[in-house]
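Supplementary Text 2. Reproducibility record for the structural model of the 94-residue chain.

All settings were left at their defaults, and a single model was retained for analysis rather than an ensemble. We include the record here because the model underlies the residue-level annotations in Supplementary Table 4.
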Amino acid sequence: MLASILNSSEPVLKDTEVSLTYPNAMMLKEVKKNQTHVLNYLRDKLQNYQIRFNLILNELDEKKFVYTPEEKYSKLREINPLLDELRKTLYLDI
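Retained model, structure tokens:
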């Protein structure tokens, strides 16, 4: 679970500080709980003992997940507007 949480945030590196932003308190709490182990591992592997985490909670940054076919199509159409034209040309349903 920790690996999934760590992968959900794009780390921002500034000097020796790694900033990680999370959309909810549960994810932030889980990272804080394991922060010592992760930092010790990184410090050892990178041979840099000044590395530290800056953990940020940004509830406005919560990712929206798409579940229904309509939501998936809408999301894909945002990425590529020509998808709608292709759907109409091939007479496809959503």
